[in-house]
Amino acid sequence: MRFLYILIAYLLAPVVLGALALRGFRDRSHWEGFTQRFGLGAALQGGRSVWVHAVSVGEVQAAAPLVNALLAKLPDVPLVLTTVTPTGRARARALFGGRVEVRYVPIDLPGSVRRFFARVRPQLAIVLETEIWPNLYNRCGRLGIPLVLASARISPRSVPRYRRLVGLFRQALSNGIFIAAQSEQDAERFRSIGASPERTHVVGNIKFDYAHPPNIEAQGRELRQMLGADRPIWVAGSTHAGEEEVLLAAHRRLRERMPRALLVMVPRHPPRFPEVSGWLAQRGAKFVTRTSRAPSAEDTEVFLVDTLGELLAFYAAADVAFVGGTLVPIGGHNLLEPASLGLPVLAGPNNFNSADIARLLIEGGAVRIVHDAMELANAVEELLADAASRERMGTAGRRAIEENRGAADRLMAFLEPLLP
Fold it and tell me: Do residues 364 and 237 share a domain?
């Protein structure tokens, strides 16, 4: 099975790498550090490292409490953080600066993996949220490197698939994969696919330990003045193709009843910024872009945020938040960011990327689910017109986050025997 996996990986690698290289023509950040995907790059200076892997922006943000705790605990040990996406890489550099060596994780081919381990020399590997890389895992097992799946989760429908893949990293599993699961249900599913009961524990979800920057409210107030202090404002964050149409339709319905309402639209991926801008122009929308530095006029319908790293500040400037990736089958993005700011949150029905978080916030009254433009327009109008409802939902979100904090401390206690 391992031979078959490696054969398929070699056959697919040119397709995957070619697609990544082609994206560089639209967004040159895809070309920066490209050789790291082959395990190349400068050898890490200093002693053996601690390696943390976080696939993209959401996981990088969630890893912040863990990374900061590791930096405080191990000031003289090099810390490496790998990610898959340019946006994840940019976010990691913005969060940690030069304190952390930020790299792309290598493609899961034996040669690339060997080169990566030779340059980074990890003595402990921590992978967030159950990213499965059979050759990386196998290398950990062969070198006797402890591997921790942190804030790990596994859905019931994924159990059969993982059970079939276990043979690909059985050596790592037998040598010491440690599971720090989000819930007891997740822990039991890992045990059912062969994880050691002695090395499988429940620590919770470290995403609840997220803390927004202390000056974010002040940034929000400044943006609010620019957007229009007395206008009703709602933000649609991390939107995808297929959602902008629904959002604009909902906003135009809303403006029939609230003509001064402003929609702040924040597409998820930078390469789509020009596409969304062109699409808004085709639809005859009156909009301005963040990069134009033009003020939001009284007749502006949409403010398009075509910059990176400002979503949280625009959430802080708004009255209501909609979280994207939920009206299309992407699986949803970070519901905790707007909830942590005390905003009422709306989302579509597709929240399977963080189903437990979504369920907790929905049941607690912090998040409402909408299915189409009409439902979205009605929900936004209701919340914009009712400050008490906004306050109630915002308070519920903050309460849910506070009641579920502590996973980062439990994870550090779990890691303590494995730390250098």
Answer: yes
**Does residue 281 lie within any of the structural domains?**
yes
pLDDT digits (tens, 9 = 90+) for 37-65: 999 999 999 899 999 999 988 889 889 99
Q: How many Å is the Cα radius of gyration of the chain?
A: 22
Rounded Cα gap, residues 66 and 122, in angstroms: 17
Whether 251 and 381 share a structural domain:
yes
* CATH number of the CATH domain containing 62: 3.40.50.11720
The total of other beta-carbon atoms located within 10 Å of residue 416's CB is 9
Check pLDDT > 70 for residue 147. Answer: yes
Q: Tell me the one-letter amino acid at 257.
A: R
Half-sphere exposure of 4 (CA within 13 A, CB side): 5
pLDDT category of residue 115 using cuts at 50, 70 and 90: very high
In the prediction, which pLDDT does 34 show? Answer: 93
**pTM over cut 0.85:** no
Q: Does residue 361 sit in helix, strand or coil?
A: helix
Does 223 share its domain with 328? Answer: yes
132 and 249, same domain (yes or no):
no
Q: Is 332 left (phi over 0), alpha (psi -120 to 50) or beta?
A: left
Is 403 part of the annotated catalytic residue set? Answer: no
Q: What is the Cα 401 distance to its own chain's centre?
A: 17
Average pLDDT over residues 327-333: 95
The secondary element (H helix, E strand) that includes residue 113 is helix 110-120
Residue 283 lies in a domain: yes
Nearest to 254 by CA among 374, 104, 156: 374
Q: Please write the tens of the pLDDT for every residue from 382-408.
A: 999 999 999 999 999 999 999 999 999
- Total domains in the chain come to 2
Bin 335: left if φ > 0, else alpha if -120 < ψ < 50, else beta: alpha
Q: By residue range, what is the domain housing residue 155?
A: 12-205+405-418
Q: Active-site residue among 32, 59, 244, 381?
A: 59
Residue 138, CA distances (Å) to 8, 91, 146, 169, 196 in order: 17, 29, 11, 5, 16
Question: What CATH number is associated with residue 228?
Answer: 3.40.50.2000
Distance of CA 161 to the CA centre of its chain: 23
Answer yes or no: is pLDDT of 130 > 80: no
Q: Do residues 86 and 192 share a domain?
A: yes
Centroid of chain to Cα 395:
23
Query: Has residue 97 been placed in a domain?
Result: yes
pLDDT (tens digit, 9 = 90+) per residue, 15-40?
988 888 888 887 788 889 999 999 99
260/178 same-domain check: no
